[in-house]
Amino acid sequence: MRKSVSVYTLVVTTPPHQNNTATVIEFAESILTAGHQINGIFFYQDGVLNASTLTSIPNDEFQAPAAFVKLLNDHQVALHLCITAGEKRGLTDQDGVININPAFTVSGLGEMVELTSTADKVIQL
């Protein structure tokens, strides 16, 4: 019998220092290990803080932003940042001030709609 492959969209609403953010990364790795696909991760609300180049996490704590970039590099999982939520939290790529990690694609809610409409399952944390 052939194994069914599901396509997931993940929506991250938690900042890098919360345990739920680490759970998203563990879940993403489990999905990929099981042979499923992730069509993208959309960062919304406080989740956009995972894209900030100004975030400083102590070395002995989980490095969520680096783990998301590793997902991108190892598995080509697109990282989409809601720019409206980002701007509300001080993130910008305008006027010579760039504090958004270049691994993240600046997007809008339309991108989230596109991702979720092409996914079999949507998980929000």
UniProtKB/TrEMBL annotation:
Pfam families xref list: DsrE
GO MF entries: sulfur carrier activity; sulfurtransferase activity
One GO BP annotation of this record: tRNA wobble position uridine thiolation
Cellular component terms per the entry's GO annotation: sulfurtransferase complex
InterPro entries with a match to the protein in the record: DsrEFH-like (IPR027396), Sulphur_relay_DsrE/F-like (IPR003787), Sulphur_relay_TusD/DsrE (IPR017463)
Subcellular location: Cytoplasm
Keywords recorded for this protein, A-Z: Cytoplasm, Transferase
Keyword Cytoplasm: yes
Keyword Cell membrane in annotation: no
Family from the record: Belongs to the DsrE/TusD family.
Name of this chain's protein: Sulfurtransferase complex subunit TusD
